[in-house]
Amino acid sequence: MAGGVKIRKRNRSHVDWNPHEAEEAARSGTVLGSRAAAKAVLRTADPITPYETGELKDSAFVNDDGKGLAIVGYQAAHAAKQHENPEYSFRGSGEGKWLETAVKQSRPSLLKAMAAEVRGRFR
Description:
Layout: E1 5-9, E2 13-17, H1 19-45, H2 55-58, E3 60-64, E4 70-74, H3 79-83, H4 98-120
Antiparallel strand pairs: 1-2, 3-4
């Protein structure tokens, strides 16, 4: 029974509903959807992330709590300083506030990706 819903067709349609399976399907879809959305943010951020040695880009990460919260970040010691000071003249390539910009640019597709993961659990 996908997502707690089973549809049987005989002479007429019949729907079996299992709330426990439906809750698990919604939960797993939310977890996978938030993870997919976080990875999409990183893909959008990649071309505008400051780059000189590659240390900053290489420190990018996605973590999730297994409950639907995903965190995108950079572990390089200079990441926060570079991100929060867009007035810097970046050697190489990139721009300040790159992660914030990526979230704003990809917001519509993030919601669609999350919804698709949840919806996919109910088929």
